[in-house]
Amino acid sequence: MEKFKVDSKGFYGDFGGAYIPEILYDNVENLKNAYLEVLEDPSFQKEYHDLLRDYVGRPSPLYLAKRLSEKYGCKVYLKREDLNHTGAHKINNTIGQILLARRMGKTRIIAETGAGQHGVATATVCALMNMECIVYMGKTDVERQKLNVQKMEMLGATVVPVTSGNMTLKDATNEAIRDWCCNPSDTYYIIGSTLGPHPYPDMVARLQSVISEETRKQLLEKEGRETPDYLIACIGGGSNAAGMIYHYLDEPDVKILLAEAAGKGLDSGESAATIHLGRLGIIHGTKTLIMQSEDGQIEEPYSISAGLDYPGIGPLHAYLAEVGRAEVLAVTDDEAITAAFELTAIEGIIPAIESAHALGVLAQKKFKSDDVIVLCLSGRGDKDMETYVRIRENQRL
């Protein structure tokens, strides 16, 4: 892990760091100085893992998808993060961060959300811990993820629709940062992915690393070995992927395949494939690859997936792609939807559209019959049913 570990200034190679307004400097410094000490404290670890077991329902199963395996001529295991409480991997992170916020004396929680899964997970832990919760969500996403908005409100959160820009995840994050600047003393910002200023990318990756920690034990039990041949996950900000690969980064024989959202195609002008199309820049407090114009203006991304519709990428993933540790594939809307309907039809599992991008990799790569693949099924598709139904109806016309 040393080679791929964040350095003391928060960088993975050229990517990362903390580029923040002065008003947030103390907050971020305090967090940077506290997070490792708290996360490694035995009493924190006990409380965190007890909640993961008894509240979230971990460990999540590692499921051999037999019919999917037959179709692609290899062994495909699904790491079933969709079976967690709240329906995705996001809860692994929000439980850890709210325990940290409470230990730091914070009383008010803010968050950003795209697909709504992080928003629901944050609202859930705020209800559990009796803390005020404000979730910023782009108006476009509020409309396409109505069910998750209703869940957040039922859980007691205030959902703030954001009407600037493209009204999606980037804009929600902008508003959350503005709120934090206005309320630095009592507010803790639970960032949902491996994004933002250091220490967030490292902290979120550590909290999500329970995914790969469990996978090693489960694979040993099922295959007699801890390491698969391939790991597959989708990336937007990249938290489920970071968790899936964390304990395998120093295993060179384990190939990493990451799927980013190509939208309507890499050359269509409507894409969110940041690693394929982005250039180095700074967004939301971190230096990373960003989709931007020649004069450095951030370009609006597009994806059918609200959770992958982001113009940047987590700095860890930008670094892994640059040094060749991860292979990044661009998966279009159509490829993801086809993969979603396929999993539903042959395994009886309806995936989130984000996770369907990871499934889309199976049709793009050729695997050997003895290859063992672990694919992170990061979330379930309840929130995307309106989109799936609309597509099905259009297909019938």
From TrEMBL:
Q: In which pathway does it act?
A: Amino-acid biosynthesis; L-tryptophan biosynthesis; L-tryptophan from chorismate: step 5/5
Q: Could you tell me which residues carry N6-(pyridoxal phosphate)lysine?
A: 90
Q: Which cofactor does it need?
A: pyridoxal 5'-phosphate
Q: What class of enzyme is it?
A: lyase
Q: Which GO terms describe its cellular component?
A: cytoplasm
One GO MF annotation is:
tryptophan synthase activity
Enzyme Commission number: 4.2.1.20
Q: Does the keyword Mitochondrion apply?
A: no
Q: Which reaction does it catalyse?
A: (1S,2R)-1-C-(indol-3-yl)glycerol 3-phosphate + L-serine = D-glyceraldehyde 3-phosphate + L-tryptophan + H2O
Q: Which Pfam family name is an example for this entry?
A: PALP
Q: Where are the transmembrane segments?
A: none
Q: Which InterPro entries match?
A: Trp_synth_b_CS, Trp_synth_beta, Trp_synth_beta/beta-like, TrpB-like_PALP, TrpB-like_PALP_sf
Q: Member of which family? A: Belongs to the TrpB family.
How does it associate, per the subunit comment?
Tetramer of two alpha and two beta chains.
Query: What name is this protein filed under?
Result: Tryptophan synthase beta chain
**Which species is the source of this protein?**
Dysgonomonas macrotermitis
Q: What is the lineage of its organism?
A: Bacteria, Pseudomonadati, Bacteroidota, Bacteroidia, Bacteroidales
